[in-house]
């Protein structure tokens, strides 16, 4: 059996081990140290726009802290894009709050501003003021962030930007992760850069970053003993993992270029194929890092479904995966309010994520192309 081709596998640049070794040599084997500071500085420098970054143990932790810092609590409502990974929504429940899910629009597959506004006005009519909006940049594609941000301003609701999949993506030249009151990044093993596991909270000021770090380190008050006035968490990134992150930052832009080339590769593979669309930026305002390349298949036109193509890939040990199953269709969230139609559901039923790593070889690309050719 030929070796497995993954959807997205870690791709080290080469300097990561030196940073990790430095952590060993200096005995900074802890959730603080020079690599944590260096990684935060690299991220904050990369994002620009005077953002301060807190390095955390995961993207999920970053989302949780964003909600905690916005004082989302028991019985509150939070608007969340339905089509996303469960980690976007689960922290709402951690805070004892309730998610209200919103459909996607077809151009970016992300939160539909029209449905969001309908949802906000309807909740307001019911006397429930949403405490936050969580918008996601799925697969690296920027959402319609200016429309969403304007709505949040109009209705005075804080915006959390889940940019876990979108480090390096931009909207009108501005990096994803810097639009919201808080931005969330992830460095899990399959993301565009990885620290094996990790995440970050992008904050608007040094004071907010300090609050995030305070909550992430068990919320210790200033005292010689352990004194606590508020609930804290153990969410800081380790100095070892941060060393990997520092090395990864040095190759981020190169790796984004390679992922964008994978997207180009799929555009060529499916060129002129009626019924298949490669997920692409709607116009030049949007620049995706193309973390994952995705397609939608109209079975009526192609004669085969996304699931049939997925299985054919599987037979050659090539990983392909359905799109995120919308949260309003998940058993966990079946009772949550939902605003929208069937855009997210239709995408889920007809879409497929394809191998997109920055480290795929020519041989591996040929194997992928050979499976696709079987369907021509
Ligand atoms: C990966 C991911 C997260 C969570 O990040 P972790 O670091 O895995 O906790 C959140 N939202 C989205 C959209 C993601 O893809």
Question: How would you describe the overall organization of this protein?
Answer:
Helices cover 37% and strands 14% of the residues. It has 376 residues and is of the alpha/beta class. The protein has two domains: 16-250, Type I PLP-dependent aspartate aminotransferase-like (Major domain) (Aspartate Aminotransferase, domain 2, 3-Layer(aba) Sandwich), CATH 3.40.640; 253-373, Alpha-Beta Complex (Aspartate Aminotransferase, domain 1). The strands form three sheets. An eight-stranded mixed sheet has the order 1-9-8-5-4-2-3-13, with helices on both faces. Strands 7-6-11 form a three-stranded antiparallel sheet, with no helix packed on it. Strand 2, helix 4 and strand 3 (98-102) form a beta-alpha-beta unit. Helix 1 (16-25) runs antiparallel to helix 8 and helix 2 packs parallel to helix 8. The longest helix has 31 residues, at 239-269. The model has no long low-confidence stretch (mean pLDDT 97). The protein binds pyridoxal-5'-phosphate.
Overview in brief:
This protein is α/β, with parallel strands linked by helices and about 375 residues long.
What is the domain tally?
2
Ligands, ions, cofactors: pyridoxal-5'-phosphate
Major beta-sheet overview: 8 strands, mixed
Helix content: 25-40%
- Low-confidence runs (pLDDT<50, min 5 residues)? none
User: Order of strands across the biggest sheet?
Assistant: 1-9-8-5-4-2-3-13
So what's the CATH class of the largest domain? Answer: Alpha Beta
CA(first)-CA(last) distance: 24 Å
Strands, total number: 14
CATH superfamily of the largest domain: Type I PLP-dependent aspartate aminotransferase-like (Major domain)
Element-by-element helix/strand order: HHEHEHEHEHEEEEEHHEEEHHEHEH
Strand content: 5-15%
Tell me the Rg in angstroms: 21 Å
Shape: globular
Question: Class by helix and strand content?
Answer: alpha/beta
CATH architecture field of the largest domain: 3-Layer(aba) Sandwich
Question: What's the pLDDT, averaged over the residues?
Answer: 97
Secondary structure tally, helices: 12
CATH topology of the largest domain: Aspartate Aminotransferase, domain 2
């Amino acid at each position: 059996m030929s070796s497995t081709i993954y959807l997205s596998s870690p791709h080290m640049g080469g300097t990561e081990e030196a940073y990790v070794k430095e952590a060993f040599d200096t005995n900074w084997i802890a959730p603080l140290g020079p690599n944590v500071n260096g990684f935060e500085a690299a991220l904050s420098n990369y994002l620009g726009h005077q953002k301060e970054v807190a390095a955390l143990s995961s993207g999920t932790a970053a989302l949780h802290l964003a909600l905690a810092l916005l004082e989302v609590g028991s019985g509150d409502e939070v608007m969340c894009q339905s089509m996303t990974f469960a980690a976007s929504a689960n922290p709402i429940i951690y805070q004892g709050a309730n998610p209200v899910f919103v459909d996607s629009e077809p151009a970016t597959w992300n939160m539909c501003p029209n449905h969001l506004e309908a949802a906000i006005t309807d909740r307001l009519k019911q006397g429930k003021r949403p405490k936050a909006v969580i918008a996601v940049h799925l697969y690296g594609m920027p959402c319609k962030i200016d429309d969403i941000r304007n709505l949040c301003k109009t209705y005075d609701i804080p915006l959390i930007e889940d940019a876990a999949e979108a480090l390096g993506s931009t909207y009108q030249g501005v990096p994803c992760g810097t639009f919201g009151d808080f931005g969330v990044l992830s460095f899990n093993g399959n993301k565009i850069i990885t620290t094996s596991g990790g995440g970050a909270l992008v904050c608007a000021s040094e004071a907010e970053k300090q609050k995030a770090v305070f909550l992430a380190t068990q919320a210790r008050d200033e005292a010689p003993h352990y004194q606590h006035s508020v609930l804290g968490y153990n969410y800081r990134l380790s100095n070892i993992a941060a060393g990997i992150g520092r090395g990864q930052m040095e190759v981020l832009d190169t790796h984004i270029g390679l992922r964008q080339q994978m997207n180009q590769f799929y555009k060529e593979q499916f060129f002129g194929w009626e019924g298949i669309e490669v997920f692409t930026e709607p116009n030049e305002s949007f620049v995706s890092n193309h973390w994952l390349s995705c397609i939608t298949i109209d079975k009526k036109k192609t004669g085969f479904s996304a699931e049939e193509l997925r299985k054919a890939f599987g037979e050659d040990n090539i990983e392909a995966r359905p799109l995120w199953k919308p949260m309003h269709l998940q058993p966990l969230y079946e009772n949550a309010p939902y605003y929208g139609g069937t855009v997210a559901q239709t995408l889920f039923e007809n879409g497929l994520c394809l191998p997109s790593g920055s480290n795929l070889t020519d041989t591996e690309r040929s194997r992928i192309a050979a499976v696709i050719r079987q369907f021509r």
